[in-house]
Amino acid sequence: xxxxxxxxxxxxxxxxxxxxxxxxxxxxxxxxxxxxxxxxxxxxxxxxxxxxxxxxxxxxxxxxxxxxxxxxxxxxxxxxxxxxxxxxxxxxxxxxxxxxxxxxxxxxxxxxxxxxxxxxxxxxxxxxxxxxxxxxxxxxxxxxxxxxxxxxxxxxxxxxxxxxxxxxxxxxxxxxxxxxxxxxxxxxxxxxxxxxxxxxxxxxxxxxxxxxxxxxxxxxxxxxxxxxxxxxxxxxxxxxxxxxxxxxxxxxxxxxxxxxxxxxxxxxxxxxxxxxxxxxxxxxxxxxxxxxxxxxxxxxxxxxxxxxxxxxxxxxxxxxxxxxxxxxxxxx
Amino acid sequence: xxxxxxxxxxxxxxxxxxxxxxxxxxxxxxxxxxxxxxxxxxxxxxxxxxxxxxxxxxxxxxxxxxxxxxxxxxxxxxxxxxxxxxxxxxxxxxxxxxxxxxxxxxxxxxxxxxxxxxxxxxxxxxxxxxxxxxxxxxxxxxxxxxxxxxxxxxxxxxxxxxxxxxxxxxxxxxxxxxxxxxxxxxxxxxxxxxxxxxxxxxxxxxxxxxxxxxxxxxxxxxxxxxxxxxxxxxxxxxxxxxxxxxxxxxxxxxxxxxxxxxxxxxxxxxxxxxxxxxxxxxxxxxxxxxxxxxxxxxxxxxxxxx
Lengths: 332, 306
Fold this sequence. Notes:
Chain A is mostly helical.
């Protein structure tokens, strides 16, 4: 009899409890459904709340507008519509439109350079050069770094060892010097700069991808997908890469200012962008520094633009990192 | 302790050997030579004669052993860019200027970076903190050659306070030092802030407050002491970086220092100078790490040396 009552009691207890727990589960599910906006929508909300990140975004958008619409809008402005296509095609090479070394005035907003070319047009075109080099060189770095890091992290063992030693050797050489050496061999030029910066800056992203893959490889959901028979490629494509995407995006954003800085440095030293094509670093290094005592406008405007570009991308990247990884924000 | 230092120094010799071999192979592996891509138009016979004179026609291992035996007698060879000057005298002539510049920048970065970081951390999330953070972002992000240009334009041209360049009188030191120190200053401030914030929230600080210590004592004896230890590893590598010079700062402010040789010796394939600078750099780095590790042992009794 005691046993019966006991069983009854337990039955009585289990009944409501299980009902309660399903109700609780439903509640949790509802709550999750309410909160679950996805990582990227959450991140976007956090990003918008971050004032510094928004300032960075505005700077970046400003530069993007300059770069994309360079020859449609801006270069045409101080020169008149007709001259624009010619200038864009010749990279400001042959068009002399003002007095040599003229100071800023109503017609030439940023003055003219020592060849009489409109400085404002060259600054605007420099935005296109800087942003293109920054973005494409990072894509080159990604094309090298992500596959290497992915293979090293996924396969491990001997391949990992070889890749990591390569990374060690690469990181022992000063980046700027290495890029300079490559440029000295290839010769100055738009595509070569991109290549040199790309080749010298894949180490960070390689390390990052390797660390991500190494950490994710041990997770249960990877094990589960292996168990149901997913192939390596499918796991990398649908599980590892999407889960590594957030840090990779952050790394790309923060890599762009570094690349812009590298381009400016190389061009400053005279091995970057070739002279007819304007670049901010080249404008400072060639004529800016030499004539700073008199033609102050030659160095001032490119310097400000480099600062804006670096600041914009860095602030945006920092904001993205905080938005995509809320744990780091809380620790700060 | 003596044994520890001795072992580390012995290890350093091995490291220098490996680094010099790698550098030697790398610089000779890059195509071209000191007289091939230069502006000097030499005939093939002249190049061959020059290479024979500097021993570049010999096999690599022989060149290396020749160089190494010279190094043991403190002879790093003659620079190809300045044929009448030895590598050592070239470095000896230009490096003191760079050390002077870098040392002052370093002092400035420490004297302002550390207090800035501490104040920002103690007044976390107030306007002081935001201002300090903003300053360190600006300092950290903007390249030093951009600072250099902006300083010249502001202080020399607009305000006419300071000369634009040169390295003869103290007045000319101000701008290059300032431009050079901003990035390390910002780095130091950033790390100091993070480190102090971490220490402030530690349990032993709560204990110190709980037992009724004055705020001043808590900050100086408990927060500072513990916060500064991890920062040693950040401070260390900044030092060799700063005292080996920057080509940009030295070019903009016309400082006759060592900085430019990092680039020119690579371009001119000035082999003795390249390897001389590499050895100099690695000696500096290695000693910085050695001293950092030793200081760490002093600062943190929990750390044991091996």
